[in-house]
Amino acid sequence: MSEIPLSPRGASETRSISPSKSYCLEPEVVERLRMETPQINDNTLALAAAEEKAISPLQAIRDYHRAFMWCLFSCIGAVLWGYDVQISSGLLSTPSFRRDFGYFYKNDYVVPARWQSAFNSVGSVGGIFGGIAVGWIADRIGRRGSIAIASFISIGAVFIQFFSPSHNNAMLLVGKLINGFALGMYLSAASAYCAEVSPVVLRGITTGLVNLWIVVGQFIANCVIQGLGSREDRNAYRIPFALQWIFPVILLIGLPFAPESPWYLARKERDEKARMVLQVLGTKDLDLHLRQIQETIALEDHYAAQTTYVQCLRGSDRRRTIIALMVFILQQISGVIFVLGYSTYFFQLAGFATSDSFKLGVGVTAIGVFGNLSALYSVNKLGRRTLFLGGMIGCTIINFGIGFSSISDTKAARWAEAVFTLIFGLVYQGSIGPLGYVIFSEVSSAKLRSKTVGIGICVNSLCGMLANIIIPYLVNPDEANLKGRVGYIFGGLGLLGSIWTWLYIPETKNRTVDELDSLFEAKISSRNFAKAEVDR
């Protein structure tokens, strides 16, 4: 066993990483870490980690119920992300929307593919800039402040969408672009907040709540479309736009009562305020956990004193950033936009009646909610790496199944595609969907979390934008008209993604922030993260 001392504060406490039989640390790596890493005082990290890991998730929810509830609250903005995405694609199946923003083609109104791509992707463009901006904003005014700014921006953006006149596609596009900026801020701030106010045992659950709220938003959107989509007047799409005002208003009402992240406060040297927040969140040993935060910040300052975006691409932080970005790229190449984002429209193209398509769309998101809830349980039982890899393999198989089903144009084949779509919703939302937000929140260092998370949301938005631009041209009847055969494309991409997952996604379950810092600094292989022991 090689002992790796931690921080120059004059204490005797040391940390050591015990490699398993399958690998060992290179001698020069051990010596470098022995010479370069600081020593931490009073066994703070060891005692705090032992206390957090000693309780079960259920007990943690009881003991830290206030922290858990505030995590639920901070994720409300994610509802708007899911709602906005689903409304954008779902309204394509609303006849009055196609009439007011499309043109007449072969006995029906169709929104041109270029405008479909624009409507569905412009929010992602805004999300790119929102994700980047929140890294700077959150480090200056806190997580609460960035959520408040996003709420005001979203209210104005929805106003533009609601009052967009018929055939003024450009005005509607501008409203969606501005709202996308707010959505990118929402996701980044919520993910960072949940990771920082939760104890280790709850971190996978609370960060996974971000995706759960996204799916809830999609479910609400599909229910709204089903209820209003058959109307022949403008309210068929104006009411769905107006309902978006609900979520930022709820956030603005509750934010004055929400506690700020104690990590943000400690980094700003507002230690007494951080102590008060820890007490509000339900922390028992306030001094111990405040010292844990301070010592971890000191440790990360030793590794890298800078907190710039450039630092995200240097040293061990580069590897952490790549993993944080890749989980969202893997989400997109699994085919989620194709299978879930276009589910209602896809059902119509497959031959289902409009009313049946709406019902199937609601069914897809309802199953997704169930899958997310199951993931909140299995994330601690199976672990992040195992669940994510299983999801990638499952989605790959389903995509190939959709592709094979599209070979025939029979009623049985159309129903097979519908069944595969429903199964995809269960598998994706029970694994890749929530685990992406868990992994990218956990692998980033505490000091760079808001920036790494922001870059992750940026890449997520960029990938979503590309998918939303390309897929209409593949699916639309006036373009390539591939329909379910698009499943072959995403099946092949998913196979490559499964291989990357097996090679590079680490297991971060039950790892404290300082343990993850040590494992990444020691360059432990992602496949051996679960086996490595960090003893103190």
- Taking strands numbered 1, 2, ... along the chain, how are they ordered across the largest sheet? 1-2-5
Major sheet description: 3 strands, antiparallel
Mean pLDDT: 82
Which bin fits the share of residues in helices? over 70%
Number of strands: 5
Low-confidence stretches: 1-25, 36-42
Tally of alpha and pi helices: 24
CATH homology-level superfamily = MFS general substrate transporter like domains
Briefly say what this structure is.
Its main location: membrane. By secondary structure, the chain is mainly alpha-helical.
Could you explain how this protein is built, in words?
This protein has about 525 residues and is mainly α. The protein has a single domain (about 40-535), classed as Up-down Bundle (Growth Hormone, Chain: A), CATH 1.20.1250.20. It is about 70% helix and about 5% strand. The strands form two sheets. The chain has a three-stranded antiparallel β-sheet. α7 crosses α22 (about 450-475), α9 (about 200-230) runs antiparallel to α18 (about 355-380) and α15 packs parallel to α22. It starts with a strand and ends with a strand. Residues about 1-25 and about 35-40 have low confidence and may be disordered.
